[in-house]
Amino acid sequence: MDVRVLIHRSPTGTLNVSEPKSAQQLGSQQRATMYGTMTNGDHAATNGEKTNGEHTATNGTTTNGDHAASNGSNGATPHTYALPKSHQDLMERSLVDTDPEIADIMAKEITRQRESILLIASENVTSRAVFDALGSPMSNKYSEGYPGARYYGGNEHIDEIEITCQNRALQTFGLKAEEWGVNVQPLSGSPANLQVYQAIMRPHERLMGLDLPHGGHLSHGYQTPTKKISAVSTYFETFPYRVNLETGLIDYDQLEQNALMYRPKVLVAGTSAYCREIDCKRMREIADKVGCYLMFDMAHISGLVAAGVNASPFEYCDIVTTTTHKSLRGPRGAMIFFRRGVRKTEMKAGKELQTLYDLEGPINFSVFPGHQGGPHNHTITALAVALKQAQTPEFKQYQQQVIKNAKQLERSLTGLGYKLVTDGTDNHMVLLDLRPQGLDGARVEAVLEQVNIACNKNTTPGDKSALSPCGVRIGAPAMTSRGMGEEDFDRIAGYIDRCVKMAKGIQGGLPKEGNKLKDFKGVVGRAGWRGWRS
Q: Could you tell me which residues belong to the region Disordered (predicted)?
C-alpha cells in the first residue's frame, strides 16, 4: 500500500482516492537510480555499484554480467556495495514495510481528509505535481546561501530551481524584476514576517498591526494587556489597530489618528480572519503621512490575488509577504516580496532628491544567515510547480469558484438567520458570529468535528478569550479544490445549521454547575452519542 494519495471529485461528482502512477517508481526505480544499490534483475546504476545480472552504465552502454563502471568504460575496477545487505534493504523498503506504525497513522489521516468536509480557511488540497516535487531527491541537497553565492558545492541545479521559482513568483503576480525582488527561502509565514521586521527595525522600534481578536494574526505583534503573546511583541513595541465593533470593518479614521500619534516604523496590513478587502490606497496614504513602511501579509488571499479576483496590494505596498499553502495551493512555505528602485522623490533647496529602497540586502541577510541555514529545496521546487499552475486559466477558474462558493455560504447562512461578521465576504471565507445563539465557537467546532466537518473556532471583534471565542471561521478553498460548487455549499450551510442547533440542545441539557467546555465535549465525545440523528 502506498499512502500517498490524492483526494478529488470525479466528473460524476463522487469523491475518489487515487494513487500517483509514479509512486512505486519513486519508491523503487528512482531510489535504485539515485543510490545505485544492489537489486535483482536489470538495473540502471548511476555510480556503477555492484548489482546482479545485466546493468546499464550512466552513459547508456551495456556490459555483460559483470559491472558498469562509473564512467561507462570497459575494464575499470568494479565498485562493490560496502555496507551489509541489511543496509541496502533499509534504504529500499517502502514506508509501509519500514514503519507500519507511521504508515497506519498517515493512512488514517488520509481517510479523515477523504471522508471529511474540509472548511478550515487556511488549508487546501494541493496537486499531485506539487506532491511529486515535495517527495523528491531535491530534499537531499544542502544549500546555504543564494544562487551563485552558496557555501557548498554541487548547487548548480538547485540554483536553477530557485531562480526559476523567483521568476515565476514575479510573473504570477504581474511584477517587473526592476521594481520588485522576492525571497523564496522562508520556511513559513510567521518566520517570514519576523525576518522582515528584523531587517528594517531595531529592537523596540514600533509596529502597528490589526489586533488578533479583530481579525489580525499573531505574527503582527499580538499582545494582551498583561502578557506579550507573540515574540514580535517581545522584540518590538507593538500597538494594535481595530475594527468598528458595529460594522466589523477596519476603522481607518481611528487607525490614522493612532498612527500619527504612535509613529510606527512599520504598518502591517493583512489578516487571518477578516472577510473584506483591505483599502490599500488608504493604508498607503496613512503610511506616507507617518513616514513608515507599509507591509501587506497576503497569506490568506495570495491565490485570489494571483487570479485577479481580489485586488493586488503590490501597487501600494513596500513589502508583501505570503504563505504558499493556503489559497495559492502550494507547499508549506513562504515568500517575501520587496520593492526595488526609487522610494520617494522630494525637492530640497530647489533640487530633486531621490531616496532609493534599501530592502533587498537587509531582507535577504535577515532570512540567511540571520534566521535560517539551508533552505528546504524540495519545498522551493514544489513552490515553483505551484506558481506555474497559478498562471493557468484553470487556476483562475478555480479561484472564481472559490469566491462564488464563499458568497453562497454568505447567502445560505444569512438566509438561515445567522449573523456574519462584516455581514458577508469579499474573499474565500465567512466568519460566523454565534453570540445571538448564546454559543461559542469551541462548542460548535466540537459538534461539527463529530460529523466530519472540519472548521475552526475563531475570535470575533469584542471577544475576550481565544480559547472560547464566539466565532467559527468557514473557508471554501479545500472543498472547491475537490470540485464542489454553490449547490454543495448550500447543503454545507444546512449541515452547519443542524450542528449549531445540536450544540444549543446539548448545552441546554447540561446542569449549570456542569456546563463548562470540558463537560460539553465529554457529552459530545461520549461513545454512542447520536446527535446527528436527533
A: 1-82
pLDDT at 63 over 70: no
Active-site option among 323, 425, 459, 460: 323
**49, 162, 256, 297: which one is catalytic?**
297
User: In the numeric block, which cell numbers belong to residue 449?
Assistant: 468535528
Structure confidence at residue 232 (pLDDT): 93
Give yes or no: 326 in active site: yes
256 is catalytic: no
| Of the candidates 259, 254, 265, the residue with the CA atom closest to the CA atom of residue 214 | 254
Residue of 54, 123, 132, 144 marked active site: 144
457 is known as an active-site residue: no
Measured CA to CA in angstroms, residue 490 lies from 114, 437, 487, 502 at distances of: 20, 20, 5, 19
The one-letter code for the residue type at 8 is H
Q: Is 315 marked active-site?
A: no
Candidates 50, 282, 332, 501; catalytic one: 332
| Catalytic position from the list 4, 150, 168, 326 | 326
Q: Decide if pLDDT at 527 tops 60.
A: no
Q: Which entry of 142, 262, 357, 495 is annotated as an active-site residue?
A: 142
Q: Is it the case that residue 64 has pLDDT exceeding 60? A: no
Read off the amino acid at residue 143: S
**What pLDDT sits at residue 218?**
87
State yes or no: is 99 an active-site residue: no
pTM of the model: 0.85
Is 297 an active-site residue? yes
- For the chain, which domains are there? 19-100 (no CATH), 187-374 (3.40.640.10), 394-533 (3.90.1150.10)
pLDDT per position as a tens digit, 75-116:
667 678 899 999 999 999 999 999 999 999 999 999 999 999
DSSP string over 159-201: HHHHHHHHHHHHHHTT--TTTEEEE---SSHHHHHHHHHHHH-
Judged by average pLDDT, the poorest of 207-216, 290-299, 410-419 is: 207-216
* Amino acid, res. 147: P
